[in-house]
Predict the 3D structure of the following.
Amino acid sequence: MQDNSRPGKSRPRRLLLCLDGVPHKLIEAAKSRGLFGGFGPPTRLLSPFPTMTNVALSAMFDASPPAGYESLYFDRRAGELRGGIRKYLGRRTPDKIPSSYMDDLDYQEPLPFEFLVYVAPDRVWRADMQRFRERFGAAPQNRDYFAFLKGTDGLLHGQGPARLGIALESLDKILNEIQKSCGNETEIVMFSDHGMNLEENRRVDLATTLRRQGFQIVPRLTGKPRRALSIPAFGLCSYAAIYCGDNEFVPEAASGIIQTPGVDFAVFRDGLDIVLESSHGAARIERRANRQTVSYRYVNLSGDPLELDKTVKILQHEGKLGEQGFAADSAWFEKINSHRYPDALANIYASLFTARVRHTADILVSLKDGFYYGWSPFGRMIRLAATHGNALRSSSNAFLMSTHRELPDCVRADDARVLLKG
């Protein structure tokens, strides 16, 4: 049977271009200045929590989950921290490929650039742009092309939105050249993996708070006291993943964590539910599924930490809340996809009950905008003008736009697969 679904037959050739870390609002601002005029309006693409590159892209492309949230991660089978800075040394070997989505990449930066982009972002960005343009120009014209530009993330982390704006101007020129040379036969789909909070950030000291409460922070949990915790600290990001030596102490550790200045909330599993604790109160997220629908219930235990009581009343008034307080996932999504915590119930629940990584944390911590957790030497080397990782709107709102298609106003990462690969 003849295949008529190839690029140039049933649809245009497609250039997929991922800009690491560019938030929706900065692309909107760029378009308002006249950049990317050949593209339609940017869709808000909701990045999964924790809002990290490999977590997001493995979801968007239905790829294998990475081992951990970053290159330094806790291996549950070994009971110890693995990976780290060694992942950026030498060649890109199979053990340095975190997810199968990378197998589909036609262009990515050389492995050392993944680290150097945070040390010398301008130089890496210029080199990256030149290499991408040359490689795309030399690629076969009868198949799709998938490129990932990491320099945008480094520019935002180290220099902020003004410098990124200059970089986007140079990218706009290159994409205009590509459109002129390729014509209407090539659709350009540009998107990002996550957003970014655009403010100066300072470090939170989770370890000090937890040690004061009698916990030990260790790299290995095998043979350690029951009150031992392991907390991978690598990139300067606005989340933290915590692994406990004894599940009995998970609730106590979570309660201790929220006393740390800069922590927004901590979540952990309680049976089939999620418990969320913050300095503003506590809540439960409950999920119920049958063959037809998935539903969620928000149980405000105290203080309404996710600020959803008003939404619950609206759903009840509209008749979308069942007698037991559950509402369909689609009803929640309609009401809270642009909330302070976008798509909060489904997103936070899935963070601990789906395989977003192979070694899921016992506790996930979302920090407030303006705060980060990570490896102290990185913090001394890098001025952190912006970062990401938490469940807030700034980090969650990535973007997606096309030169050829109208797209939904808002889409989850998991639901973007057909828009990116279809």
